[in-house]
Amino acid sequence: MKYKHLFGPVNSRRLGISLGIDLVPYKYCPLNCVYCEVQSTTHLQTTREAFFPIQEILGELDNFMQNRPHLDYITFSGAGEPTLNSSIKDIIQYIKTKYPEYKLALLTNGVLLTDDDLLTEILPCDLILPSLDAASQEVYEKVNRPKPGLKVEDQIQALVKLRQKYPGQIWLEVFIVPGITDTESELNLLRKAIGKASPDLVQLNSLDRPGTEEWVKPATTERLKEIKKYFAQELKMPIEIIAKIKHHPGSTSLDEEIVHLIRGTISRRPSTAEDLAAMLDVHINEITKVLRELNTEGKLQAERKARGVFYSWKR
User: Fold this and answer.
1) Are 223 and 255 found together in one domain?
2) pLDDT tens, position by position, for the chain (315 residues)?
3) Which residues are 44's β-sheet partners?
4) H or E stretch at 284
5) Which domain holds residue 255?
6) Number of domains the chain contains
7) CATH number of the domain to which 236 belongs
8) Which CATH number characterizes residue 267's domain?
9) Nearest by Cα to 83 from 48, 32, 117
């Protein structure tokens, strides 16, 4: 069965073996981050809606879960913002009732956590992974490019409220864009904001493959270590670096069938991740994971054009 809303399981850098559930159409999000690996947001949106019939999503999940596969997490994620789906409460309750042995994780940019109703809806999740890349409005608008009217201070206060209401684990991702989010003044503001939000873990991340904007470059390992040390001077929670985790050739983390299909396609014609997802009928998140690791292995050549980043197989 081909799935429209499920992807994986993937061997996630953060969550182990994770089955993804994509709750929104491609690239519906309140933010248009310059570093996003699935390229520009096409629908800049903060209004929640159902998007799909709930039984369509639950039917796919039931089909996949027939044999109760081993999973570390069932994860709400995808190529958009999961909390935009107004049916997320019912989907969470369904999973927790029918598949209580599985842990449930939510990846979110945190923008909509200002909604008290949403906060209540997501409380049954076992793990929430919000993000905070900037603490000043100027940097927020440059890096996250929010829908007009959104304020980073509101997002910070929403994280504070999340901590007050949510008893589970919160892992906060901070994406480092060199020269912008890692200036002395911005890091100082970020450190203070993270202290207020009090997550259980801070994860520093940086670019793995080409993002939306060509000028975004990955932070060096040395720089990430410096930022980790700077945060640790005042923050009490653990801080770890999740960027640039090495992929070992020959490991089982990649779906060899997808690798074969991608190689066969881009050996003949350079394609974007979005092109590959459409042509191969594979979820965009699975495509981007494989491209990320193949790029790390040095097997791909990337060229940015007007329509996006085109990948070809190195001869």
Assistant:
1) no
2) 678 899 888 777 788 899 999 999 888 999 999 998 777 888 999 999 999 999 999 999 999 999 999 999 999 998 899 999 999 999 999 999 999 999 999 999 999 999 999 999 999 999 999 999 999 999 999 999 999 999 999 999 999 999 999 999 999 999 999 999 999 999 999 999 999 999 999 999 998 777 788 899 999 999 999 999 999 999 999 999 984 544 444 444 557 778 888 888 888 788 888 888 878 877 777 787 788 778 767 888 888 776 778 888 987
3) 29
4) helix 284-296
5) 247-315
6) 2
7) 3.20.20.70
8) 1.10.10.10
9) 48
In whole angstroms, what is the distance from residue 286 CA to residue 12 CA?
A: 11
Residue 67 lies in a domain: yes
Strand order in the sheet with 6-12: 6-12, 16-21, 73-76, 104-107, 127-129, 169-175, 201-205, 239-241
Write the CA distances from 57 to 24, 62, 112, 163, 275, integer angstroms: 11, 9, 22, 29, 24
| Element spanning 10, H or E | strand 6-12
Give me 104's structure tokens: 């449930």
